[in-house]
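Appendix B. One record, verbatim.
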Amino acid sequence: MNCRIAEGMVNKYINHTLSVNDLEEFLEHIENCSSCYDELATYFIVHKAMEQLDEKQEDSVLDFRELLEEDIRKSRRYIRKKKFTGQSQQLRSVP
């Protein structure tokens, strides 16, 4: 994946609308490309800040970078779960 493609996937990542394969490629890319990671972090922080304002949680202070890292960890677990579920289903269909 190149940076142009990854940058086009940032909003889909934030909105959790990437396919499992696209999600895996996207995460692989941002782990190895600091520029795209920074782009994701910027959009993610703005998105979370807007959510916080919409929910009128002015008194709460969030560590947006930590929220992003947690979201990435959850995405990795989601990929592993989907791959495991897919393998389990394939094994069951073999006579």
